Amino acid sequence: QQVEPFDYVIFGATGDLTMRKLLPALYNRLRMGQIPDDARIIGTARTDIDRDGYVARAKEALERFIPDDVRSPVLVDRFLGLLHYVTLDGTKADSEWSALSSILSEAPADRIRVYYFATAPQLYGRICENLHSHNLVSPHSRVVLEKPIGTDMATATAINDGVGQYFPENQVYRIDHYLGKETVQNVLALRFANPIMNAVWSAEQIESVQITAAETVGVEGRASYYDTSGAMRDMIQNHLLQVLCLVAMEAPDSLEADTVRNAKLAVLNALRPITDETVASETVRAQYTAGVVGGQSVPGYLEELGQPSNTETYAAVRAWVDTPRWKGVPFYIRTAKRSARKVSEIVIRFRAAPTALFGATPPGNRLVIRIQPNEGVELQLNVKNPALDAYTLRTADLDTTIRMEGGLPFPDSYERLLLDAVRGNPVLFIRRDEVEAAWRWAEPVLKAWSENQVPMQTYSAGSYGPEKSAALLADKGDKWHEDM
Ligand code: BG6
After folding, report:
1. Which of 216, 235, 237, 430 to mutate to test the pocket of ligand 1 (most atoms within 8 A of CB)?
2. Which residues carry out catalysis?
3. CA within 20 to 30 Å of 336's CA: 129, 286, 424, 428, which one?
4. What is the pLDDT of residues 120-147, one digit of tens each?
5. Closest C-alpha residue for ligand 1 atom 15
6. What's its EC (predicted)?
């Protein structure tokens, strides 16, 4: 399914995200036959290089980030042939814009044009203003905004207002790459295409939900960004709340973008506010100290940073969705840098049902949706232990790994999203009111943390997090998944 011819204009085209994610994703879609020959990818950045210089960088990026077995010289050349480059400071209203205008004017006026902002979010408004004043905004153009959309409600509003002055909401695509992950999209299939799941998806059968995104990496070269952000802003306010929405939302009437987004918004609006009274019992924050990750000794966060900091590299929250479906069901959310392993997963713990047949009540079933790695679904059942004649139970897993046919690599989350922006399908992008509802919930936590209402814990790099985080679950008799 080839998309219509398009011009993709990337602001921040020499940056890490473009090289690591955007260009490889577009290459993969070319390989899959979805990109027409006359599409153009126009990189812009302040870096003063020419087209050949940019092509050389792009080629290097593909060599680094595309596995050998799906990287063919013919396809790479075809891809590099789509590239253009314009040296441009998107925030300055000077003559450099004429080079971009002139490239764009070579295409028919009704060609789809996607402006992708992979720059600092404070610049989005200025770039939009310049696009507008150079007559580069048309009903056929859309703008894709990378996160973070702000660091709180006020800054998010400023960014959204800045963009909204020049692009109506239906032309604004706020990307959250977690929504592009196949196994995150699979939550809807799992829930609504399987009556055996749909029938048990509520407080009546579900005791608790865990949503985890842990990484072994530290803050890499991004300490200056990360230290202004922290785990709550970097992962929870966006990615993990979106995952929570898909787990908790009511069945939408269709997969039309606004129908799905309305259903997610309803969940965000139903999140119980965390207040000064509850913040200490519902949240845990921590920083990693030196430790060993994957056999390598690594320094602590503060040593890496070289200065004191009040920024968390671990955050865990006990959230509540105040709807009849989820009455009394805790949603434990956590994320960590420098964790013991890289894993993103959803764990649904079902209630145990008393029965006198086997002595003790058999444990409740558990469903694990592995977002990454080993994308798949695992359902833990109680079975009779074959080693014993007496009716003794043990657990066994129904485990399915979701694979691509023909052993092809799993599509990266950016691939579909980048082309959805061309197709004009915003279903996997975040609407403005969702961003705001997420900030409304996160902001009081961040404020309380900044006032040190919740002590900063520590955890050794390479561990699963601070000891204190177990306390969030303990009063319900729960444990984090790896401790179960
Ligand atoms: C990004 C965060 O949005 O998501 C990073 O800014 C984080 O800090 C990344 O590493 C995690 O994404 P993934 O796809 O590797 O789970």
Report:
1. 235
2. 239
3. 428
4. 999 999 999 999 999 999 999 999 999 9
5. 215
6. 1.1.1.49
